[in-house]
Design a protein that fits this description.
Helix content: 55-70%
Strand content: under 5%
CATH architecture: Alpha Horseshoe
Number of strands: 0
Shape: globular
CATH topology: Serine Threonine Protein Phosphatase 5, Tetratricopeptide repeat
Length: 95
Amino acid sequence: MGHQYRPVYQRRDVIDQRVRLQHHRYQGKHDLAETRLEEAVEANDQYVAARITLGDVYAKNGKKAKARKMYRSVIEMKPFGVDLKDVRRKLKAVR
């Protein structure tokens, strides 16, 4: 039996990374979270959770244009299993 495909959002290393990023974010280390999330998106441009969280961090840091760009990119991707209504709400909130 070959290697079983696992979507990126189910991989243990990605989940661990996201937990660490959320920890930095909620500990007030927004600049560190921003840097790590940018690295994650650069490494995997299909990493939807990182894009949404990066948009949130940009919005929190007052970088509204960058936040809008992240949210729009998620909407354009039309990912399965993502609440696009919530992403659209976030996009509207940073206008």
